Amino acid sequence: MVEFTVTPPAPAYLDVVGTDEKFPVRRIYCIGKNYIAHVREMQQDERDPPVIFMKPKDALVRNGGEIPYPVFTNNFHYECELVVALKSGGYNISEADASSHIYGYAVGLDMTRRDHQVSVMEKGMPWEITKAFDHSAPVGPITPVSKIGVMTSGHVKLKVNGETKQDADISLLIWKIDEIIAKLSEQHKLMPGDIIMTGTPAGVGPVVTGDVLDCSVDGLEPMQVRIGEMAT
């Protein structure tokens, strides 16, 4: 039995639709700039490949949870997107084989400190300050691919206090899911338990304490989270 010098962190996991079993999360990969309309609203170059970054797995917030308004920002934004969960992986996965590694899908939020994003992009600095902070990765329950099949289309929708803010279709992804998996596996050995946030459509915007966010993707279990008081 391993003895630890301090209390180890709690395991990171997501719920799975239709079972009491949990999906253990190893890494959270994120894809930026993957819908043309969002690239345009952020005034970025449409010809650039999508940005790859990560969030820590202890940033997960499950369905029904609360996101404390984070420190070190005055412009806290939502980004709703489709999440892909992997059951297997490896290096240099081909696009033709990519879908065979998918365990299932969920809806997620890439929460962002928007006021810091512009400055770090201009200076070529790492994205952690704007993307990889506490409670920045809400993800809903996973629907296994065995129940829904391989997803190539479906509306991504986000409502803030009942008002629709984002509404697009995953068929509009610049880099499709198979391409994302293949490209990631060129740089990282993908493994069971990895999840991928595939990018957000246009309509991103700020939230404040008390706001309720309802996120959905056609055919998947919806997710609702609330913005809480300032983190302490």
3D architecture notes:
With 232 residues, the chain is of the alpha+beta class. It has a single domain (13-230), classed as Alpha-Beta Complex (Fumarylacetoacetate hydrolase, domain 2). It is built from six helices and 18 strands. It has a six-stranded mixed sheet with strand order 4-3-15-8-9-12. Strands 6-18-17-13-14 form a five-stranded mixed sheet, with no helix packed on it. Strand 17 and strand 18 (223-230) form a beta hairpin. The mean pLDDT is 94.
Features:
about 230 residues; globular; 6 helices; about 35% strand; Fumarylacetoacetate hydrolase, domain 2; five-stranded mixed beta sheet; alpha+beta; six-stranded mixed beta sheet; 18 strands
Q: H/E series, N to C?
A: EEEHEEEEEHEEHHEEHEEHEEEE
Structural category: alpha+beta
Tertiary shape: globular
How many structural domains in the coordinates? 1
| CATH first level | Alpha Beta
Distance linking N and C termini: 35 Å
Helical run tally: 6
Question: How much helical structure, as a percent, in the residues?
Answer: 10-25%
Strand content: 25-35%
- Biggest pleated sheet: 6 strands, mixed
Could you tell me the CATH topology label: Fumarylacetoacetate hydrolase, domain 2
**Nearest-angstrom radius of gyration?**
17 Å
Per CATH, the superfamily is Fumarylacetoacetase-like, C-terminal domain
Ranges where pLDDT stays below 50 over 5 or more residues in a row are none
Average of the residue pLDDT scores: 94
Number of strands: 18
The CATH architecture can be given as Alpha-Beta Complex
Strand order of the largest sheet: 4-3-15-8-9-12
Keywords: Hydrolase, Metal-binding
Domain Fumarylacetoacetase-like C-terminal: 28-226
GO molecular function: acetylpyruvate hydrolase activity; metal ion binding
InterPro entries: Fumarylacetoacetase-like_C, Fumarylacetoacetase_C_sf
